[in-house]
Amino acid sequence: MDEHILQIKNVTKKFPGVTALSDISFNVKRGEIHGLAGENGAGKSTLVKILSGVYPADTYTGTVIYDGEELNFDREALRSAMDKGIAVVYQELLLVPEMTVGENIFLGREPVTAHGSVNWNKLYADTRELLKKYNLNIPFSARVSALGVGKQQMVVIAKALSENVKVLILDEPTSALTEAEVDTLMEILERLRHDGITCIYITHKLNEFFRITDTITVFRDGMVVDTVKTKEITTEKIISMMVGREMKERYPAETRNPGDAVMEATGISVPDPLLQHKKLVDDVSFSVRKGEILGIAGLMGSGRTELVSAIFGEYGKGRQGTIRINGEEVSILSARDAINNGISLVPEDRKLLGLIVSQSILKNISLPNMDQFTKGFSVNRHKEYYECNEMSKRLSVKCPSIHSIVESLSGGNQQKVVLAKCIMSNPRILILDEPTRGIDVGAKYEIYKLMNMLAGQGVAIIMVSSELPEILGMSDRILVMHEGRCTGIIDNDENATQERIMTLATGTSVLN
Ligand SMILES: Nc1ncnc2c1ncn2[C@@H]1O[C@H](COP(=O)(O)OP(=O)(O)OP(=O)(O)O)[C@@H](O)[C@H]1O
Ligand SMILES: [Mg+2]
Prior knowledge:
By secondary structure, the protein is α/β, with parallel strands linked by helices. It contains 16 helices and 22 strands. The strands form five sheets. It has a six-stranded mixed beta sheet with strand order 6-7-8-3-9-10, sandwiched between helices.
């Protein structure tokens, strides 16, 4: 048996105007966890699609040897990757929400009775056994729609494992998971490694490479820079391989002098629509000053997103409390009201980004901001093009041109278009919910620089983030949430440490 389960040889994949993969070659060893690192648009997901048959063999050049044989997917055989034992866990989970866990796992392969009807007993018995084998704590007969993202992802993994998978590919699996769910995922991966299953693991969270992978292949601009042993490399080295230069600092240094409060929110509460006496946000008060970056920290599910959505008018009249802007109380009952009051929000959920994916980058950035390019009835197309292009370049959106269709961009680059659109609207208050999720280190740095620049111009910025280094690296003050409540607002000085924030975030002590 060959030591390598996958040999990728001189693979080139082109799209109109873009070479997504340019003559790449590397090997994946049997049974290892092999990380793929690289900036947004470097070609990682494209390779995944080649390995899983989304792009059939006649749409690229070069060869992939899988388990001793050349991969040769044709256009008809949609299931053939699965049949061969290659399974992918995508960021968007492809499950049927109305069906149960068991039904999803055995969808299309349901065991049948002698009479030809579905053998439900066997289906659920098999499901239970499978979940037990991998120590997956999921109710086997629950509807998938009733499960959280982390559990849904485990269902996807269980489904792959039920089909005798040999290579499991995970493309940014942890971006929507809580810390505890990430821990569980890591345990599952270790178990798989122990069982000799090969994993390919893609992430922008570099610490995860060191937690779980054996080997890392670094991509840059559609090429493979190198394949290295995880033990023999450092984070700094990976970053410099990814971005092609040394990056000494992760957060641009900046001294800020915040001015007066722009917005004051008092007693903000949002009732839980499902549970009568519970609140998603419970009596939170805070202010944000001109030119200040206020970080909002807390565990997933602590009400951070609900708090900023409430400020943005999401819950209409359901929200309690008052919002003052420049000292005057304002009524914000919708996103439109929020925008009219100079508030802009970059949402957390990639699927709800409000992008028109079939339209160009230019149109996505300019359409909501048309008033800036219009005088009377005429649109200044030159100005529209120039300013949107500048913004797209600043955020280093990787694309052949600003006329490219958003759908053709990599995940992280789509995210940047949303940022561009919101920043273009010249908000007074800019709310960023997980602004750098799924974004590579180099582009993160650009986003931080842009945040500093906007703050320097007097914009008040509220940033929700799950990454404590980012919170500590960028905020002037930090608001910490726990179970809907604010457990502290602290200055970001030498006393602000990850430990202190975690203490507040886990509700182990309550200040205020
Ligand atoms: N269907 C498509 N049509 C045109 N170009 C595409 C298409 N799919 C991908 N590309 C381009 O190929 C390049 C590689 O994209 P890919 O999605 O593989 O990047 P990635 O490394 O997964 O990035 P990210 O970290 O942002 O997910 C990008 O420049 C992207 O715009
Ligand atoms: Mg990708």
